[in-house]
Amino acid sequence: xxxxxxxxxxxxxxxxxxxxxxxxxxxxxxxxxxxxxxxxxxxxxxxxxxxxxxxxxxxxxxxxxxxxxxxxxxxxxxxxxxxxxxxxxxxxxxxxxxxxxxxxxxxxxxxxxxxxxxxxxxxxxxxxxxxxxxxxxxxxxxxxxxxxxxxxxxxxxxxxxxxxxxxxxxxxxxxxxxxxxxxxxxxxxxxxxxxxxxxxxxxxxxxxxxxxxxxxxxxxxxxxxxxxxxxxxxxxxxxxxxxxxxxxxxxxxxxxxxxxxxxxxxxxxxxxxxxxxxxxxxxxxxxxxxxxxxxxxxxxxxxxxxxxxxxxxxxxxxxxxxxxxxxxxxxxx
Length: 333
Ligand code: ADE
Ligand code: ZN
Prior knowledge:
Shape: globular
Number of helices: 17
CATH superfamily of the domain at 3-26 and 94-111 and 141-330: Metal-dependent hydrolases
Order of helices and strands: HEHHHHEHHEHEHEHEHEHHEHHHH
Strand order of the largest sheet: 1-2-3-4-5-6-7-8
CATH topology of the domain at 3-26 and 94-111 and 141-330: TIM Barrel
Bound molecules: adenine, zinc ion
C-alpha cells in the first residue's frame, strides 16, 4: 500500500463528525425528481442527468438560486424525513458518528409549509438514526440573511417552542451586502433564549464580517471563514481563542472562492494553528460527502496523516457534544 492509499484508508475508517451540513443541500437529484412527481411540483428539468448538468456555479448567489428552487419539492413531513434519512445513510457509509445539521425554515415557511412539518420530519429521522445506527446529532436553525431582521423574530419564536430539538441558530444565504450587524438584535434575543450561535462569515465576504460575527453575534463557531487569512490580527484572535472554522473545500471550489482545490488555503490555515476542520456543506450540489472532501483535499494539498488527524480531532473538539462524549471519540482517533 502506498502512502496515499494508507491515508485514504484511514480517512474512510476513522470515526468522524460533521459540523457544517445544510440538510436541504443533501437533496440528491434522484430524490428531487421523485418528490417533484410525488408532490406534483414542477421543476425546470426533464431528467436526473439534466439536473446534475445544471450544477455549474459562478459564485454563491448563482448556487443559491438553484438550491432554493430545488427545495420547492419538499412539502410534507415525510419528504423532510426521507431527505434526512438519505443523509444519515451517507453518514453510515462515511463513518460519521456525529452530525450537526442546519436547516433553513424560512425557505419553507415562505412557501406556506409549517415550521413544525419541517422540524418534525428532520427530527424523526435523526431519532431513528440514533436508535438504529447509534449516530448522534444536533439541529441548528439558520436565518436567511438576504431577508430583513424583523420577520426573523417570528421564526425565533417558533424555535423557542422546540428548545429540546434545536440547539442553536445560524446565519446563511447571500453573504455580500448582508453583514452580521443586520442581525445583532435577533442574535441577542436568541442568546437570551438559551440558543448557541454560529454564522457563515468570510466565505465570500470580507474579514470584517468574521470580526462582527464574533463581536456582535457572539458566535461559538464561524462557518467557512476562509477569508480570515487576509487579516493578520484576525488570524491571531481566531487562533488564540481556538475559534472553530468549519471549512468546506469542495464547496469553495464549486462556488469559485478558489479556482482549484490545489489553491485552497486549508493547509495554510492548519499551519497557522487555526482550529479548522473539513465539512461537505451542500454535498448533493458540490460533488461529494465528507470522505470525498477529505480524500480529495488531502490529495490536492498533500496533507499528511497528522494533518488529517488534527482536522478530525478539531471537528469533535468544536462540536456541541458534552465533554465526556467528545473525549470518548477523541481517544479513538
Ligand atoms: N446555504 C446553503 N449553503 C450555503 C453556503 N455555502 N453559503 C451560504 N448559505 C448557504
Ligand atoms: Zn454552508
